[in-house]
Design brief:
Mean pLDDT: 95
Strand content: 25-35%
Structural class: alpha+beta
Shape: globular
Number of helices: 3
CATH superfamily: Ribosomal protein L22/L17
Largest sheet: 3 strands, antiparallel
Distance between the termini: 36 Å
CATH topology: Ribosomal Protein L22, Chain A
Number of domains: 1
CATH architecture: Alpha-Beta Complex
Order of helices and strands: EHHEEHEE
Strand order of the largest sheet: 1-5-4
C-alpha cells in the first residue's frame, strides 16, 4: 500500500483541517481549474459555488487549459469557461469530508476558509483500443490526487 503525504507545508493540528481524495477518476485539468476557483473561499460559499456548477448555473473560469474552450458571458476577466460537473461533484464530496473533519475538531464552520487546494496527476492506467487491420492503439486514463486544507479565520 503506498504512503501518501500532503503537499501542504506547515500544517498545525490546532489551526488547520485537511481532506484528500486519492486516485480519483476525474480529469486532472478540470480538477486544477476547480482548485484555482475555490481557493481562498469560505467553505459554505465554495460548496454553494460547486452546487451551482453541477446545476449548470455558474461556470468555472479556465485559466491555463483554455485552448478551444468556449467563452461564457457570466465570467469577468477570464472569459473562457466550462461546467466540469464530474470534477465539481467530487470536490463537493471532498468538501463535505473536510467539513466533517472540522466539526470533529470543534472548529467554527462559519469561519472556515479554504487556504490550499491542489490536484495533481496520479497513476496512469494503460489500456488498448482496437483499430483497423488488426492493430490497436494505447488509451491512457490518468487518475488524480486531490487535497484541500482549511483554516479558521
Amino acid at each position: 500500500m503506498p504512503q501518501y503525504a500532503y503537499s501542504f507545508q506547515n500544517f498545525e493540528k490546532t489551526k488547520h483541517v485537511r481532506a484528500s481524495s486519492r486516485d480519483t477518476e476525474i480529469s486532472h485539468k478540470h480538477a486544477r481549474e476547480v482548485c484555482v476557483a475555490i481557493k481562498d473561499m469560505p467553505l459554505n460559499k465554495a460548496k454553494e459555488y460547486l452546487e451551482n456548477v453541477v446545476a449548470l448555473k455558474q461556470p468555472v473560469a479556465y485559466r491555463r487549459y483554455k485552448n478551444e474552450v468556449a467563452h461564457r458571458s457570466e465570467l469577468q476577466g477570464f472569459p473562457a469557461g466550462r461546467f466540469p460537473v464530474k470534477a465539481a461533484g467530487e470536490f463537493l464530496r471532498l468538501l463535505n469530508n473536510l467539513e466533517a473533519n472540522a466539526e470533529y475538531k470543534g472548529m467554527d464552520l462559519d469561519r472556515l476558509t479554504i487556504i490550499h487546494a491542489s490536484a495533481f496527476p496520479g497513476v496512469k492506467i494503460k489500456r488498448f483500443t482496437s483499430r483497423a487491420f488488426g492493430r490497436n492503439s494505447p488509451k491512457y486514463n490518468t487518475l488524480v490526487h486531490v487535497e484541500v486544507v482549511g483554516m479558521e479565520k
